[in-house]
Amino acid sequence: MTIALVGFACLLLLCFLGFPLGFSTLIAGLVGFAFLRNWDWHASVTMMSQQIVETGANYGLSVIPLFLLMGVFIHRANISEDLFEASYALLGKYRGGLAQSTVLACAGFSAVSGSSLATAATMTKVAMPHMRRYRYDDSLSSGVIAAGGTLGIMIPPSVPLVIYGLVAEQDIGKLFIAGVGPGILLVALYMMAVLAVILRRPETGPAGEAVPRRERYRRYRSVWPVLALFVLVLGGIYFGIFTPTEASGIGATGAAAFAWWRGRLRTLPQLYESLLEACRTTAALFIVIFGAQVFSNFINLSGLPGALVDLVEGFALSPLGTVFAVCVICIVLGMIFEAIGILLLIVPVFLPTLIIMDVDLIWFGIVMVIVVELGLITPPIGMNVFTVRTMMPDIRLVRIFRGVLPFVVADLVALGLLFAFPAIALGLL
């Protein structure tokens, strides 16, 4: 167990020195495995190459680049502006309405993109000018965008849910369906968080202009392709019409057709740029996956999972107590690592313990995603916060972190409700 903890410490050191997470896990796993095999570098390198080849050949992982490609096509179709305008037509005339419209637009964009960072970056460009026009407080505006972006990893299709399903060997379709209820819950809690801020300080979110009825209906109609694509992908999985992998291909094809219809994907250079962006994102993600697999082999060989089982039995923790302890660890790691890295590092370590304690792994996966959502908006890293800061360099970082605090509370409330009422995630299964 000691060597495993040393390995984690070295991994943290490499990350603090500026090494990308994928390469940090590869190095720590490679060296740690060699140490445990009496510095047999041939065995260590062989293990690494086998893991990379086997992981790369895993058919289940093909869902990731296809869903990423769907998100790229949707982004190119420029649907984010339509989503925000439709949400504004519904809520903009009320105090705080623009912030709540941003939450709804983030949820809609997340439902077809699956990326938190892309949602945060896109909605910053779309929503921030409108909120500044109506003199919204920058702290509230930037905070709601950073927090709204985290919906991208809960509302299906979600890449972290795919990763979790593959690591924990759970049905990805069931995970997607289980994410619908908590996703809706988070949207409602985020809108309530905006309302709480407005009730406390009404001047932070003035009311916007009312939209005429005919214009409202026109804006509502403009977002039908997003709703249709979401229903097609998720409905097809739910009713067993096609598998998640097939759904990702159908979703990517539908998103490409929509982008072509809007005149955003009619030339070879436009198609090439979209494919290149999806390839770059996929490559970066797969490096993290490869590194985590190598590091997990080192951790398993070190005996840490078995030691954790003995430790839990020694403390006589209940299943919920064990899950709570895992959540605390993940919240702390979320301040340093990004979401997928946490899932790949933590889930394999605690999985044997959770299986022995008969914890529902579908429910646990949803809990884990909410926990890593917190890591995207909590200091000192908070990747969504830094994304908004990059897009809006005139806003001080401390103001954005202050702005996300109500949404951190909302995430904690959602986590508590999931512990108290597991049916929120499991009710549709």
Report on this structure:
The chain is an all-alpha fold and 429 residues long. The protein has helices at residues 2-16, 21-36, 41-56, 63-76, 79-91, 97-113, 116-133, 138-149, 159-168, 172-178, 180-200, 213-222, 224-238, 244-261, 268-302, 304-315, 319-334, 339-356, 361-375, 383-391, 397-420, 423-426. 78% of the residues lie in helices and 0% in strands. Helix 1 packs antiparallel against helix 2 (21-36) and helix 9 (159-168) packs across helix 19 (361-375).
Continuous helix count: 22
Determine the structural class based on helices, strands and strand pairing: mainly alpha
Distance between the termini: 38 Å
Number of strands: 0
User: Order of SSEs, N→C?
Assistant: HHHHHHHHHHHHHHHHHHHHHH
Strand content: under 5%
- The chain-level mean pLDDT equals 84
Low-pLDDT stretches are: none
Helix content: over 70%
The biggest beta sheet is recorded as: none
Overall body shape = globular
- Radius of gyration from the alpha-carbon trace, in angstroms: 22 Å
Secondary-structure blueprint of this entry?
Blueprint: H1 2-16, H2 21-36, H3 41-56, H4 63-76, H5 79-91, H6 97-113, H7 116-133, H8 138-149, H9 159-168, H10 172-178, H11 180-200, H12 213-222, H13 224-238, H14 244-261, H15 268-302, H16 304-315, H17 319-334, H18 339-356, H19 361-375, H20 383-391, H21 397-420, H22 423-426
